[in-house]
Amino acid sequence: QVNLQESGPGLVKPSETLSLNCIVSGDSISSGSYFWTWIRQPAGKGLEWIGRIYSSGTTSYDPSLKSRVTISADTSKNHFSLNLSSVTAADTAVYYCARDSGGMGIQHWGRGTLVTVSS
Amino acid sequence: DIQMTQSPSSVSASVGDRVTIACRPSQNINTYLNWYQQKPGEAPKLLIFATSKLVSGVPSRFSGSESGTEFTLTINSLQPEDSATYYCQQSYKTPRTFGQGTRVEIK
User: What CA–CA distance (Å, rounded) separates A112 from A108?
Assistant: First the structure.
């Protein structure tokens, strides 16, 4: 059974970098045909795709965030990470990590972690 | 980016009713359309992928279809536990994009 668990600070100061990890169990992030993905959801709003990393290491980002986002993977620890720089209050959201099967949708999600940007 | 327009934004229906939610992409996405259900405080749950394929374990009252350029999620015989927000998502191109969501309330 595939499980994903987000971890990281719940509070980040404006202009600093938001860093989250997603620990994966039940699957290897370095094998298979899956896209390891970050999605966020501001309170009371819809889902926003941030970006993803493929098992090969290839990344893809939302254009609106591309200048500030880095997604990387540590295959030795079987986790992948999100770094979002120069954060503002608009980046306050619940952040989800997920496994995207491509044409078969996103069936596996973490529980989400709330990150608040505030001084 | 492919814009996904969902309608209505909210719907209130009685137990046993049929509910339909529409999703229209701004460009062709072939059949790469997925539907998710999200309840408060929970992660989204995949219901349907590739327009009409039901995820294992999802009740058969949920179905998906396409007509022309519009995709539809149908909930037949609405149940109390179906109270949630539903999102469509295209998986044809990156960036992956979601509809704005449809809140389904039980009268």
Answer: 12
